[in-house]
Amino acid sequence: xxxxxxxxxxxxxxxxxxxxxxxxxxxxxxxxxxxxxxxxxxxxxxxxxxxxxxxxxxxxxxxxxxxxxxxxxxxxxxxxxxxxxxxxxxxxxxxxxxxxxxxxxxxxxxxxxxxxxxxxxxxxxxxxxxxxxxxxxxxxxxxxxxxxxxxxxxxxxxxxxxxxxxxxxxxxxxxxxxxxxxxxxxxxxxxxxxxxxxxxxxxxxxxxxxxxxxxxxxxxxxxxxxxxxxxxxxxxxxxxxxxxxxxxxxxxxxxxxxxxxxxxxxxxxxxxxxxxxxxxxxxxxxxxxxxxxxxxxxxxxxxxxxxxxxxxxxxxxxxxxxxxxxxxxxxxxxxxxxxxxxxxxxxxxxxxxxxxxxxxxxxxxxxxxxxxxxxxxxxxxxxxxxxxxxxxxxxxxxxxxxxxxxxxxxxxxxxxxxxxxxxxx
Length: 425
Prior knowledge:
By secondary structure, the chain is an all-alpha fold. Helices cover 73% and strands 0% of the residues.
């Protein structure tokens, strides 16, 4: 695998202009003029950067006509990120002609992740939106590697991918590495900024470290952006409770509430079209995208209907459980009332039995055959049995876990019993 990665890196070299640009931007002595001078040496890069800066994606009120102006308005980090995006698309151009996978769908997915990541980064203090955009755009670099280096084997991987066995799991099983791991190594070999290799390596990472003191890493943003996508080669169609919960947890940790997330997702289709236009990326015509959006909407509606049915089942189950709980509470109350009167009755019986026993001991009763003495013993033993049964019932776990139901009509039993005893006396 390492030999294949080295070959891929050697064949798909980073443009010399980009290497010079990265070095210059990272230099302490760099200036807007020195950065603009390097970009101006590549007419194609310069033209595409200017087109990006003036695209609807950035909604600039004034036209940006020079690279110096673009760097001033967009910022050095943004220009660096956009230059990387352009260069990566150029490298991927030759691979995309293989026909092994649908590259319109591939770039549509990558652009969606890039756009969502950019929007999320814009909501988080200290994050650079263009940097997140570039990381999102490049996150599936490893898939390009597999398509170029293992075309026949990768077809089998794609065919074996199911909701129960995702793409990255099949890749690891066949190649020993998945596309996220491979892509991260390639980015490191190209000596790209660490933030890019981290984002590529971790976009499938489920072991999300806690976000401390509000410090959010770009790779976490891209990871969340990837989770918000509804389609892609490496995304299952199932929307499991686990996936939704992971997404919500990560969103909350980043300070992104549900309303903000919904607004971001609502803007994605138009922004993807704008980004595809200024990057010269073919993702299909508008009609194709509308059909796809309608299909996704249909899937969402089906999921919504299923959730309604499941919710109704859950509600019915809760109602049955509540009935069971109230019945247990009523039974417990009845037992407590019953126990109270039986205890009183047994105490009276024991008291009378003890009097009889005392009279026998004092010789006040004539019992030559021992019948009275034997009867007193049986009465005492029977009362002990009744008390033991009551004690066991009180300790029964079901009754112990129920809450005393103060509003229960069972409490009226006590008064009814008193009234009946009163009538009997």
